[in-house]
Design a protein that fits this description.
Layout lengths: L1 E5 L8 H16 L3 E6 L16 E4 L13 H4 L2 H15 L3 E4 L4 H9 L4 E5 L5 H9 L3 H15 L3 E4 L13 E3 L18 E5 L8 H14 L4 E5 L4 H13 L6 E5 L4 H6 L3 E4 L8 H8 L4 E4 L15 E4 L4 H12 L2 H14 L5 H18 L1
Parallel strand pairs: 1-2, 1-4, 2-3, 4-5, 5-6, 6-7, 8-9, 8-11, 9-10, 11-12, 12-13
């Protein structure tokens, strides 16, 4: 079976890129699939995560300005070239299956380009806010855009969602739920004695790190010997804002922006709590990675995501969405109660087994094979 994964790029660290690399490596090692990755803004950059040499890479070299909307005139002018290059590449590869990983022009192009290949759209973010926008929308043009998107969704053989909560955001009858898989469950566990909490992710406003930093100011009032390390890279302006916030709150000795690391699991094992302050998450892999290391997790109960992975008071704490005071209360609760941390650590290690590759990846194999036989 010849499979194409289509996305924008795989050189920036992120959840989608991590999950894609994991899938490609699994299929490379456990099947005889011929695997291709088609990108349109990879350039000469190497993949940010290690990917098996059996995978073939193709880049269309479309130079969109990613600081602007795809509908901005500076970007729209590239769409015809994008379509023609993508069509030519798909014809050249002649895949049995095309999996669309992100949401831009290619989402609309793929159903127009091929009728032969099995077409699968996988969603890596929550449809919650788009759903709210639809409910509140009064504009005719936006209604038309939503109808067009729904039409193209219906042209896919399958829409793969990460949680059951996401099903209500799609009108098509071709939906199914397959969670992300974790490739490795650590044989070690954090000893939970280090007075350090950790957070990680792309440094962007959607991750809500300003809420976390502000909450940490309250944490150190009662726990002054604890520190917070934030790992990740991202938007330069936002990084400067966070650095300025840390300085203005006099937290330079308590909160540290550490940049990207290839050894996040080691950093987790050196910590005692994982904390997430995201504004939106659908299925954050970093929570599974933290649980794999035996870290209890404190997280905002943001729409649809962490609540599917965290069982409140069992393997972590879910606190009121965007309430920095509740976030600091949850952190202080765990900081002051090592028995509770150890209890949650043990349960986190058990919980993560639900998402092992041996459990999740056969669902993908079944999806490919069923649709291949049907076609």
């Amino acid at each position: 079976m010849r499979i194409v994964y289509y996305t924008d790029q795989i050189y920036l660290h992120g959840g989608l890129e991590r999950v894609l690399a994991n899938k490609l490596n699994y299929f490379s090692q456990n099947t005889n699939f011929e695997l291709h990755v088609v990108t349109f803004q990879q350039g000469n950059n190497p993949p940010c995560y290690d990917i098996n040499d059996k995978v073939k890479f193709h880049d269309l070299s479309i130079k969109y300005d990613r600081k602007k909307s795809f509908l901005h005139p500076k970007n729209i002018k590239h769409a015809p070239k994008h379509y023609l290059k993508l069509k030519s590449k798909i014809k050249q590869i002649n895949p049995d299956v095309i999996v669309v990983c992100n949401y831009e022009y290619g989402f609309y192009f793929i159903p127009l380009i091929t009728k032969k290949a099995i077409k699968i759209k996988e969603y890596h973010s929550s449809g919650h806010f788009n759903y709210i926008s639809r409910l509140n929308n009064k504009k005719f043009i936006k209604k038309c855009v939503y109808k067009i998107s729904d039409y193209f969704e219906s042209r896919y053989d399958a829409l793969v969602l990460l949680t059951k909560d996401e099903l209500k955001y799609h009108n098509s009858n071709n939906t199914l739920v397959i969670p992300n898989a974790i490739t490795h469950v650590s044989s070690q566990s954090a000893d939970l004695s280090n007075k350090k909490a950790i957070s990680a992710g792309r440094i962007a406003p959607v991750k809500g790190f300003e809420y976390l930093i502000k909450s940490w100011q309250t944490v150190i009032e009662s726990c002054p010997d604890w520190t917070l390390e934030i790992y990740g890279e991202g938007e330069g302006e936002y990084v400067k804002e966070l650095e300025s916030l840390i300085k203005s709150l006099n937290l330079e000795k308590h909160v540290f922006l550490k940049g990207a690391t290839q050894q996040l699991d080691c950093k987790m094992l050196e910590s005692s709590i994982y904390v997430m302050s995201s504004l939106t998450e659908c299925f954050p892999m970093v929570i599974l990675e933290a649980m794999s290391c035996g870290l209890p997790v404190v997280s905002f109960d943001c729409p649809n995501g962490p609540r599917h992975m965290i069982e409140h008071n069992l393997n972590g704490l879910l606190v009121e969405y965007l309430n920095k005071n509740k976030l600091s209360e949850g952190l202080i609760d765990l900081i002051n109660n090592i028995d509770k941390r150890e209890f949650m650590s043990n349960n986190a290690k058990i919980n993560v087994n639900r998402y092992k590759e041996s459990v999740i990846m056969p669902l993908w194999l079944d999806l490919f094979k069923k649709n291949h036989i049907r076609n």
